[in-house]
Write a structure and sequence with these properties.
By secondary structure, the protein is an alpha/beta fold. The chain contains 15 helices and ten strands. 48% of the residues lie in helices and 14% in strands. The strands form two sheets. A five-stranded parallel beta sheet has the order 2-1-3-4-5, sandwiched between helices. Helix 2 packs parallel to helix 8 and helix 8 runs antiparallel to helix 14.
């Protein structure tokens, strides 16, 4: 494991930094790939009887982040988000795959056995399967009717650039992100500016360095981002954390929060007066009990101890992409500040065995 390092320049000196710095390119190339044929796919998404989003880990978190955009695109018609193993091994229920469904299955590597098996079950049930994956010729792609390629490239450790690329693809399929060249260039510029601006993340990392527990909170798309951040905090900072809505945190878990913890609040959706008022109230309450607060959003405000990290991209999917990138920076900075950072994983892929024997062969 590393000790604290001087600076957190993008692109180095660690694996996570290099991969995080490739996120803007991965987003831009994913959207450019949808410039041709993307309208037909968006029409398919809008017209399906039901849309089921299926994935594990970071892929599942991105599905949860994009759920509201897809519901809007489908005028409120059913959109279900399911963890792959639940879709595969849970009891039969009303959410089982049906003819007329569109199953959107997500896996960066295309090798997740649970997701591959869920895709196979969906096709057998008569659903159309659309894979979002960086491995356009990989195992998951071969299980799908349609493949959306997210050219993020190999990813050796925690999900960073692959998260952003998958979320961009989902936003484009929901017609929530434009795919014309000028819009893609503007978004890439905004994300690249965030990559090079490491000072706010370093300031937030100092709070993570001494934290006992991290509480990640957000409404809507921000809640999905919080779930993704919780995985990074666990994997890289080795910091116990929980992802909740702000309301869920205020009604009970706040009793367990101490000045030795940190709360990270995300506000990445389009502005809404009640949400802003709610988060301002949370900020005052945390200041009263001395809990540090890190806020990532368009107009972040911190009353007590903490850090405000602004997001410059337009509200909606662009802000969500930049906010998640900022959260990835915070996780990396916190890992280095705690001295826990290491390339790869301590346990995942070393002790945790892939579930091919449980998922694929049954």
């Amino acid at each position: 494991m590393s000790s604290n390092i001087a600076g957190l320049d993008p692109g180095g000196p660690d694996e996570m930094g290099r991969e995080l710095a490739e996120g803007p390119r991965a987003v831009a190339e994913t959207l450019a790939g949808l410039a041709t044929g993307g309208a037909d796919l968006a029409a398919l998404v809008a017209g399906a009887a039901r849309v089921q989003l299926v994935g594990t880990g970071a892929s599942l978190a991105m599905a949860q982040t994009a759920e509201a955009w897809l519901r809007h695109a489908r005028a409120g018609r059913p959109v279900l988000v399911r963890e792959s193993s639940v879709a595969l091994m849970g009891p039969a229920d009303a959410e089982a795959f049906l003819p007329g469904d569109l199953a959107i299955v997500l896996s960066q590597s295309g090798t997740s056995p649970e997701t591959r098996a869920a895709a196979r079950v969906a096709r057998a049930a008569g659903a159309i399967t659309l894979a979002i994956t960086a491995a356009d010729d990989g195992p998951l792609a071969r299980e799908a009717d349609i493949v959306v390629h997210t050219p993020s490239g190999p990813e050796g450790g925690a999900a960073t650039k692959s998260e952003l690329a998958a979320l961009a693809a989902l936003a484009a399929l929901a017609r929530a992100l434009p795919v014309d060249a000028a819009a893609i260039a503007r978004l890439r510029d905004a994300l690249e500016a965030a990559v090079t601006d490491t000072a706010p993340a370093a300031a937030a990392g100092a709070f993570l360095a001494r934290a006992r527990v991290a509480w990640l909170v957000g409404f809507g798309a921000s809640h999905g981002a919080a779930l993704a951040g919780a995985m990074l905090f666990h994997e890289k900072a080795l910091l116990p954390c929980a992802a909740l809505t702000p309301s869920g945190f205020r009604h009970g878990p706040i009793e367990a929060a101490t000045p030795g913890d940190v709360v990270v609040a995300l506000d990445l959706d389009s502005p809404e007066e009640r949400r802003a008022t709610y988060l301002a109230r949370l900020s005052r309450e945390l200041a009263e009990i001395g809990v540090p607060l890190v806020v990532i959003g368009a107009a972040p405000k911190v009353v007590g101890p903490g850090v405000a990290i602004p997001v410059a991209a337009a509200p909606g999917p662009g802000a969500a992409l930049e906010g998640i990138l900022r959260l990835q920076q915070v996780a990396r900075a916190g890992a280095h500040a705690r001295g826990t950072y290491m390339d790869g994983f301590r346990i995942l892929r070393r002790v945790v065995a892939a579930a091919d024997d449980l998922a694929i062969s049954r």
